[in-house]
Amino acid sequence: MQHDIRASIWTTLLAMSMVLTLAPGCKDEQGKQANQANQAANQAANQASQANPKSGAAGNTQVSAETTVDKVRESPSYFYGKQVRIAGKVEDIVTDRAFELEGAGWAFHDNIMVFTKTPVQMVGGLLGKGDEVIITGTVRPFVTGEVEREVGWDISQETEIKFKERPVIVADSIRKVSESGRWSANGVGAQAITTVVAMITTMDVGALAGQPVDLDRERVQSVSGKGLWVGPSAMSQVFVLPSAPPTDIKPGDMVRVAGTLQKVPADATTAWGLPPAMAGAVREGMIFIADATVRPVAGATPKAGD
Q: What is the pTM of this model?
């Protein structure tokens, strides 16, 4: 078996070498083809190592690997029991704990089903059709009873029939590509929002009310009234209302902020002691960070353009 694999590798290398020697074109094209040959050789060598029982790879049940929906569908037995990381688009929502991840192939029914133990609550709401996500989880053969025991809930007969004898993924974590929040099988509810950009780029900002915030490192744009504005720039910032008045914090400082997002009240400008010029920035229905704890980031030295 190993001899056959090595022979296949050398055959691949020889074929690539002949193509590069005979193919006409400029040096740039030849360089591109050489890179492709190296990649093919590396991939073949990696497959050989994985197939070698002495290496232990084939028997490892927790091999973390980046792959695609199509690769899992093409060689499911290789991935069974292994942990993978896959990026893709949500094709269809089956329940709040099961959805189809879209494949990139031309074949029909090339999606893969993803199961979770709890509802997938993301920043701003539940996971939705069309969301682009990155999933970490374990590939399983769809044996209904076994998957049900792992996720802890009953799978519908319709889903069972549709995905019978196909690979599925039991997810450990799911993250939207466009946002910082994520769902975790070990957590309860939504994860804390960790950047100002994630807040201000959300389609329905008002839906973030009630979400926890844990900003690890944000710049103070200004200190005004009873609070301060933080964010990467004056065009991308959010108002922070600390539980205690901020002391020894000035514009340009890098801070860590923990609190809860709430909708701006009708009388915010007056209640927070803000100048009239800021009335448009704290309109009713927008969000701010309430009951916040603000701490300087130890040793943080602002960089030019930071």
A: 0.46
Rounded CA-CA distance 31/17 in Å is 12
Q: Tell me, what CATH number does 271's domain have?
A: 2.40.50
The range of the structural domain enclosing residue 42 comes to 2-55
Domain annotation covers residue 257: yes
Report CA-CA distances (Å) from 66 to 36, 41, 79, 90, 249.
Answer: 19, 19, 11, 18, 43
Do 95 and 163 belong to one domain?
Answer: yes
The alpha carbon dihedral of 283, 287, 288, 290 has a sign of: positive
Predicted confidence (pLDDT) per residue in 273-305, tens digit = 998 888 888 887 789 999 888 988 876 554 444
Alpha-carbon span 290 to 270, nearest angstrom: 16
Instruction: Give tens-digit pLDDT for 198-241.
Output: 888 776 777 778 888 888 889 999 999 999 999 999 888 999 99
Domain assignment present for 301: no
The answer on 173 and 85 residing in a single domain is yes
For 41-57, write each residue's pLDDT tens digit.
Answer: 344 434 433 433 333 33
